[in-house]
Amino acid sequence: MENILEVLMVVCFGISWPINIFKSWKAKSTKGSSILFYFFIWIGYIFGLGSKYIKLMAGTPTPSYVWFFYILNTVMVSAGILIYYRNLMFDRQTNL
Fold it and tell me: How many CB atoms are closer than 10 A to CB 9?
């Protein structure tokens, strides 16, 4: 049951990332975005993956779908970080 609840939590976060990525890509601006927020979310997913790895090494395997959603969300947050820096370049060009 705990794995299902964890997956539901990660899926709910995962639903929001494509929306965030699309809006950031379209906006071409960092206004309303926080790189600090992105990095804390990213490191949180890395810690979550680390936790799953430690459990695996201790003999408590985590279902594949849990790994999948953690990795998928980490990739989406990474894309958000890259888009942030892309948008930062657009901001700097318009402020010249």
Answer: 11
Enter the pTM of the model: 0.88
Quickly count: other Cβ atoms within 10 Å of residue 86's Cβ. Answer: 14
Contacts 24+ apart (CB under 8 A), 40-46: 41/77, 42/74, 42/77, 42/78, 42/81, 45/70, 45/73, 45/74, 45/77, 46/74
CA distance linking residue 29 with residue 6, whole number of Å:
33
Are 42 and 81 within 8 A, CB to CB?
yes
pLDDT digits 0-9 by tens, 48-96 = 999 999 999 999 998 888 899 899 999 999 999 999 999 999 999 988 6
